[in-house]
Design goal:
4 copies of one chain form a homotetramer. By secondary structure, chain A is an alpha+beta fold. Chain A is built from 9 helices and 6 strands, in the order βααββαβααααβαβα.
C-alpha cells in the first residue's frame, strides 16, 4: 500500500497500561479558572450555579456511555472533580491516556454544552472557553482510595472555611483583601469560626453542605415500586456494567465455563440511577453503613 | 494541618515527563463519530461543515493561550487531528498527561461551542455530545516528524479515494453498500479513478483539495504593510512564544549570562497569524521551499 | 564549573519509581544457560550442585547488606530466582532500575565467586561467564503475590515432571531425544508418573523435593537459647530492617511524634537467619499455618 | 494446564521499551566502592590495577556475545562505566530492563572472575563482593550523546585534579585530610596545578592519561595484513552486528526485497577488535577526525 513506507512512525506509539488490578482515580482541574470565574462574575466565596454545573457535568461523565458505568463514585469541589474506578475495571484495556482524555473530553463537552442552562445571561466567550486538564493516579487497596477521597474532602473543608471568613471580612466587613489575608494569617479553625460568628452572626455549620463538604456523584438502586409506576420517569438510568471476573485477568487457557443448555432465568438486575449528595465521607460510618458500604468491593 | 494524615495519597502521583528534547505529536480522535455523524446527518463521503468545524476547533487549539503558541503545525482529516510540537517545547514541564489532556479539552470545548455556527439546524443532544480521545507520541528528529505527517496525509488520500468512489456507486450508481464494497475489493488507485471518471464523469483531481489532502493549520507572518494599515483587523494573532534556549535544558549551575546595562533595542518581532491550507506535504518540495521550510528548526 | 555546559545531559535521566505501596518481585533468569550447562556438563534432568549454587547465591542476595533485609522470601527453580518485597519496602526510593540492577549484580557476583566451591573441577571460562537478566513486577495485594509464587511452583512441578520422565527415557530407556519427546506428547501428569514407575521403578513422590518443589529462601527466628549458647555461631544473621511506617508514605507536614525524654528500653529484637527449604507453598496451609504465615503483613 | 489458574499474574509484567530510534547509554556505578576500595587497600588517588580491571571488564561487555557487538563505545572513570548504543540498535526489542540488567550482569561477572588476575594477593570476601547498579538514559541525537561523553570526561578531569592535589597534600605534604580539604576549598584549576608543581614538583599534564582522561573502549578495524599473518592471534574479535535497516522500524507490510537467485559474493567484512585508549573526546577534533568520526552514524 502506498502509505506503508511511512507507517514505521506508528511504532513510536508506546503502550501506557495501568497495572492490571489497581484502583484508580482520574482527577480533572479547571485551567485558568481564576480568570474564567472573574470573567463570568462568579459569586464569592462560592457560586451555586458554577458548582451545580460542575456536578451536572460530572454526572454526565459517570453516567455516560463512554465509561460504561464503571466509574463508581466521583467527588467534586471548586473547579476540580475526581472520578474513582474499581480494581476490576477493564475499560479500554486500562490504557492510561485513553481513559484520562476521555474523561476530560466528556466533562469539557458537557460543561460547555450545559453552560447556557446555568449561566443564561453570561454566554461563553470563544477565546475564553472552559478548559480542564487531567491526570490518572493508581492505588493498591480500598483504604488508600478512601483516604484519597478523605483528602479531597478535608481540602474542601479547609479551603471553604478560609474563603467563607475571608469573603465575609471583605464583602461584609469592609476590609481590603490584603487586610483580610493578614487578619486570618495563622488562625486555626476554631478562631475562624469565632470570627464568623461574632462579627457576622454566621454559624459555620449552617453553611450550605455543598460548600462545606463538596459533592458526591454516586449510584443508588431505584426501588422496584418506583420503576414500575406508570409514567414515572427515572433519568438517567444507565445499564449495569457487564459483570467483571473476580480475578484481575482471566488465565488465557482456562476451560470454558460449563453451562447447562437451559439457562435459568436470572432475576432482573435492579435499576440504578445517579444521585448527587453532600455527605461526610471522612468518618468511617459512611464507609461502614452509609453509601460507601460495599462501594469498592469486587 | 487537619488534612495531613491523608496527604500521603499525593505521593501516588507519578511524574510522566516526555524526554527533554524529542519532537512530539498529540493526536486526537473522535470517539464514536460513526454514530455521531449519522445523528447529525453528515454528508457522504465528506461533510464540508463538519470538516470546517474540525479545522476551526484546531485553529483555536493552536492559537489558544493554553499552548502558548508552541504548536507549530496541525494536520486534520475526518474526525482526527494531529498537533505537532518542536523539540525545544518546554510547555508545562513537558508533562505528558497535562499536555494531552489540555489539547483534548481545548479542542472539545471549541468544537462544542462552535457547533451552532456550523450546524445551526441540528443542535447537539446532551446525551450524544462530541467526544475525543488523545495520545502523545514522541519522535527524535525532523525526518520522523515529516514522515509522521506524510503518513497521515497518505492515509487521507487512501481513505478519501475509497470513500469517494464508494459513495458515488451508492448514491449515484444505485448500488447497495454491500455491492459497492464488493465492486471495489482489490481495486488499485488507478482503477478507482477510472470507475469515477467513466461511470460518474468525476475527475478525482478536481475533488476539493480539503477532501484529498486534509487540512493544515500553520502560522504565517503578517506582512508589515498589512499590520500597519489602520483599521485592518488581523485575527487571531497570538504572541510569539518566549524564545527557547538552544540547549534542551540549561545546566543548573551555569553562570548568569553577561549583559550590558543598556540593552540594545530589538527590532520588533514580526506578527504572525494562523492559516488553514490544503497542500501536499508528502513531496520534499513543501519542506524544502514551501510552508514546511524551517518549520521544525531550533 | 567547567563541566556545566554539558551537565544538561543529566536532565535526560527520567525517574522510574514503583508505585508507593505495591508488593513487588524481582525475577532473574539465566541468559544462555542451555549452552552454559552443556559447557559445564550439568547432570540431567537436575544438577544438584548447580541448584545448590543458585540457592546459595540467592541467600547472599536476600541476606546481603544491599537489600537491607527487606526481601522477605525468594523462590528458585532451574536457572531462575524470584525475590519478593513487601508493600512497605522503601529501598532506594523504590527506583525500579536501581533495585533490579542491584539484585542482578549481587546475584551474579555471588554465583561467580561461589562457583569454585560447587564446581571445583570445571573452572569458569572468561568468554562464557554466567549471566542473568532481570525484571521487576508489581502486585497490589497479598493474594496476587501468593499466586505469583504458586505460579512459579506449579511451573517447577510441570517442568520437573516432564524432564524427569524425558531423561529417564533417554538415559535409562535408550530412546533418542526425539523418541522421548514423541512418547511424551499429549501425556498428562498421571500418565507420566505411570511411565516412570512401570518402566523405571521410580515413584515420582520420592524424587528429591528440591527438584519437585523448587527452593524457598526465607527468614526464621533464631531461638534465644541457641543464640545465647557460648561459642555457637549463627551465620549469616543480618540485622532487622529499620521498622517501616504503616503508611506507605508519611505525610510531609505531620507533627513530630511525641516522645518522653526517658525512652523506655525496648526488649531486644529476636535474631533471625535465612534457611532454604523445599516446601509446598501452593496449598493454603503454608500461608495459614506454615512459614508463609504473616510473611506479607505490615 | 494445571498452572493456568495462577498464570494471570503474568499479565502484571508491563513492557518498558525504549523509544524506537533514540541513542542510549547504560551507565553502571560501583555500589559502596568507598568501603570496597578500603578493604582491598586501593592506591590513592588512583589504583592502576583497579582501573585496568574496570577496563577489562568493560571490554568483556562491549565485545561479549550478549550485546551482539551493538555497543559502539564505552567510557570509564573511577568505579563507573558508560556504554553507548546507536539509534539503530534493536537489541532485545529495546526492552530497557532487559538491556540494563544484562550489561550489569556481564560487567559484574567479568569483574568478579577477573579479580584474581589483578589483585592476586587480595582475594574477594564473600560478604563484600563487588556490586554495580545501572540505569539507562535515552538521547535524541548525536550531539547529545557526544555531550554526554564530554560530561563524563570533564567530570573525570575535575575529580582527578582535585584528588591528585588532595592526596599529594596528605601523603607527601603531611597534611591531615581535613587540612587538605580546607587548603583546597575554593581553589580553581590553575591554583591546584600551581600547588602541585610548586610544592611537589608534579606537572599535572604528565600525570597518567588514564587518570586525567578516563578510558575509552572502542572498536578499530584490524588491518588486513595483520589478520593474514599466520599465527597472529587477534583477541577478541567479535562478528559485525547484523546490518540494521536505516529506518527505525520497517513497515509491516513492505514488499519483500527483490533478490536475484545468484547472490553476488560480498567482499569480506573487515575484522575489528576492541582497543582501550585515553584520548581527549571533549574537543571537536576527536569527533571530526579522530576515533569518534562516523562513530554514531547509521
Amino acid at each position: 500500500m502506498a502509505g506503508s513506507r511511512y507507517a514505521y512512525v506508528k511504532s513510536f506509539e508506546i503502550a501506557d497500561p495501568l497495572l492490571p488490578s489497581t484502583f484508580f482515580v482520574v482527577r480533572i482541574d479547571g485551567k485558568g479558572f481564576h480568570g474564567f470565574s472573574k470573567l463570568h462574575d462568579f459569586d464569592k466565596p462560592n457560586d451555586v450555579r458554577a458548582l451545580n454545573l460542575m456536578n451536572e457535568a460530572a454526572r454526565r461523565v459517570v453516567g455516560g456511555r463512554e465509561l460504561n458505568g464503571e466509574c463508581v463514585v466521583a467527588f467534586g469541589e471548586s473547579d476540580e472533580y475526581s472520578f474513582v474506578f474499581k480494581r476490576t475495571c477493564r475499560l479500554h484495556g486500562r490504557r492510561a491516556s485513553k481513559i484520562v482524555t476521555l474523561v476530560v473530553s466528556v466533562f469539557t463537552a458537557a460543561y460547555t454544552a450545559l453552560w447556557p442552562q446555568f449561566f443564561p445571561n453570561s454566554p461563553l466567550a470563544l477565546d475564553h472557553l472552559p478548559v480542564f486538564d487531567g491526570r490518572v493516579v493508581q492505588y493498591t487497596n480500598e483504604l488508600e482510595i478512601q483516604d484519597y477521597l478523605r483528602w479531597r474532602q478535608v481540602d474542601t473543608h479547609i479551603n471553604n472555611m478560609y474563603n467563607t471568613v475571608f469573603w465575609a471580612l471583605v464583602l461584609q466587613g469592609g476590609r481590603t483583601e490584603q487586610q483580610a489575608e493578614q487578619e486570618l494569617r495563622g488562625t486555626i479553625s476554631s478562631q475562624k469560626q469565632e470570627i464568623l460568628f461574632s462579627q457576622f452572626g454566621i454559624n459555620y455549620n449552617t453553611v450550605d453542605a455543598m460548600f462545606r463538604k463538596g459533592s458526591i456523584v454516586i449510584w443508588e438502586e431505584v426501588p422496584p415500586t418506583e420503576t414500575k409506576e406508570p409514567g414515572h420517569k427515572v433519568e438517567p438510568v444507565t445499564p449495569e456494567p457487564a459483570s467483571t471476573p473476580p480475578q484481575p485477568a482471566p488465565p488465557a487457557d482456562s476451560p470454558a465455563p460449563i453451562t447447562t443448555m437451559r439457562q435459568r432465568k436470572k432475576p432482573p438486575k435492579p435499576k440504578r440511577r445517579l444521585v448527587i449528595v453532600h455527605e461526610d465521607l471522612i468518618a468511617d460510618a459512611w464507609w461502614a453503613e452509609g453509601r460507601g458500604k460495599g462501594l469498592l468491593d469486587g
